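Note to self: the last two entries modelled the partners one at a time, which told us nothing about the interface. This time every component goes in together.
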Amino acid sequence: MEGRILEHPILNFQRKARVKIFFEGREIEAYEGESVAAALHAAGIRVLRYTPIDGRPAGFFCAVGKCSACLMEIDGIPNVRSCMTKVRDGMQIRRQNKNGDLL
Amino acid sequence: MRDSYEVVIIGGGIIGSAIGFNLLKMGVKDICVIEKSYVSSGSTGRCAGGIRQQWSSPMNVRLAMRSVELFKNFEKDVGMDIEYKQGGYLLLAYTPEEEEDFVKNVEMQRSQGLDVEILSKSQIKSKFGFMNLEGVRIGSWCQSDGHANPQIANIAYSMAIKRMGGDFITHTKVESIDIANKKIVGVQTDRGYIRTNTVVNAAGFESSKIGKMVNVDIPVYGERHQILVTEPVNHFLDPLVINFNHNYYIRQTKHGSLLMGQGDANPMPGEDLGNSIEFLEEMSQKMVRDFPLLRNVHIVRQWSGAYDMSPDAQPIIDESKDLSKFIYATGFSGHGFMLAPAVGESVAEMIVHGKTITMDISNLRMDRFKNHIEIEKNVV
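The predicted structure of the combined assembly is written out below.
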């Protein structure tokens, strides 16, 4: 399954350079300029975190940085909005359990 | 709202509500609490909810210990879970003077039966390895101190009052108090007149205004304190930590968010409850220095509340000498919530029996200001 739009009826864009990012230690295909959540979505990863109270899986929801559904641990920092954070070469991304661990 | 009550309590914050609840519990059913806005709209709803017993006078320690006993049974007695947690209180000393005070206070507190101890710097380090303890000399630690959610506690009391047959009247302002032959005969509100002979002034930082209505001078004024809340993170901080030297306190709520506040460098006495960017700057800098693990945590919002300051930063609980059955419980100076259950009990006893039964709180009478004023130092 290709999770990226390859052809668009009115928009025209060039795919940028490939970068290496890691989800739970596994390398994921990503391109410069993409958000972390978009790259994970394209790779078929639908569960981004587990909810604070019941620990239920949560995925991509508002996609504009408002809803907290996509908070992830990125490079060791919890509560990062993966929909608003662009991929960077070498990035380490982990699913967040509940509110994120500082310790 | 009826047109007459045996007791009218002015102020529906934690103090007024606790007094109302205890009166009902003691069988005084004909009471009402008058709140000018909504439940917990004032200082109670703005406070961080710390519950501390580490005070510098024996009577205050005993009163706080009684409060803790009542907090332990709050859910059963009042009927609601208020997120009460005995996670302890850690006080940090940075100067030789603070160290000396802590040692002296702990000795006195232990003589009152409090489970408090001095921790060395290395003991603090092993308990709370995530803290930056640069400059810390010792700590004072009490495991049975803790914290709870003040808004829920306030709401719990207000609901219990209604359930038990009392009235809790919100969005109603007291305009004047009627006196005839040196006795209270009624209270005029913006929603009608109430006949009563007993008035309790629990109006917090506005209690001096209520006092003025009956020419009783209550030396209490509002002092703005600011506070902020962060996004929730998984639980890591059990105690409330107080740092007098760096001027802050911090605690983690059950929800996971962190509450942290300080007294302003330039307190603005009065009713200004605005907030400032300087507070955010100062607070975030010192918190990241002392708690480096907070460096990437987002702040969600900030607000302020008014401490009801008294001349010695201690509560004033008394009946007026000049006006019979005009009782006041005010001037809590930032520690009203933690004392509320015990104060509610004592003030209700004053009304029912003419004197307190459970606790001796004679040190909190108004006449202490005639003599030398000993200011409580352990406040942020």
